[in-house]
Amino acid sequence: MDEKLSFFKDGLRLDGRRPDELRPIKIEVGVLERADGSCYIEMGDNKVIAAVYGPREVHPRHLQEVTRAIVRYRYNMASFSVEERKRPGPDRRSYEVSKVSREALASVILTSYFPRSVVDIFVEVLQADAGTRTAGINAASVALADAGIPMKGLISSCAAGKVDGEIVLDPMKAEDNFGEADVPIAMTPGGEITLLQMDGRLSRDEFRRALELAKVGCQQIYEVQRRVLVDRYSSIAAPESCEAAEAEEEA
């Protein structure tokens, strides 16, 4: 069977997207009452929730850093998040994703503001469809902002891949499983890359095109992140402003 026909039809991908098109994105902020900050995100069929706690005291205390806060990131896939039930608990991949995701976010968090403390980030994948690490980073970034953690800026994350010899944005599960390469990145709104990985083989020109396409995807995701945060805090601030104005009038 011709592989080209299995992934593209009339220039469109299996899910009807153009090669340079993101999957639909949905973001909700402040979904967990007991967390300091939280976010729920859907990127295509990925469903991911992130919770942030802190800054708070470090336990055990010998882990404290005198001049800065430490950042901890725990990525976990629920057993029911994939078609074949996953064994509960962390595995090698979870540790790897946690490490690179922490590094992607820690570089923009102003940790010097909170010495001897910790910021804990928990990311739980409820349903997986390729790109869970990028979805987790996007959710964690919004959750950090929701928690009021001082940052240089939001982090946005996206991947590009190679499928049937063509560079595509934001690969879904079938493209990720049977594609030829995958390039996830994370970056600031200013274009500073904080995460760059590659799985598979690309020529130098293909890598350059994949990187540029992933950057465009990150910029589009940033606009969504920014909009939901502005909408949330505008709606919170509006009633408070009305109450203050009413109190002033009464006085």
TrEMBL record:
Gene Ontology biological process terms from the UniProt entry: gene expression; nuclear-transcribed mRNA catabolic process; rRNA catabolic process
SUPFAM superfamilies: Ribonuclease PH domain 2-like, Ribosomal protein S5 domain 2-like
Stored Gene3D superfamilies: GHMP Kinase, N-terminal domain
Domain Exoribonuclease phosphorolytic: 21-150, 154-215
Pfam family, one: RNase_PH
GO molecular function: 3'-5'-RNA exonuclease activity; RNA binding
GO CC terms in record: cytoplasmic exosome (RNase complex)
Residue stretches spanning the membrane: none
Enzyme superclass (EC): hydrolase
UniProtKB keywords: Cytoplasm, Exonuclease, Exosome, Hydrolase, Nuclease
E.C. code: 3.1.13.-
Compartments in which it is found: Cytoplasm
Family: Belongs to the RNase PH family. Rrp41 subfamily.
Quaternary state and interactors: Component of the archaeal exosome complex. Forms a hexameric ring-like arrangement composed of 3 Rrp41-Rrp42 heterodimers. The hexameric ring associates with a trimer of Rrp4 and/or Csl4 subunits.
Protein function: Catalytic component of the exosome, which is a complex involved in RNA degradation. Has 3'->5' exoribonuclease activity. Can also synthesize heteromeric RNA-tails.
Name of protein: Exosome complex component Rrp41
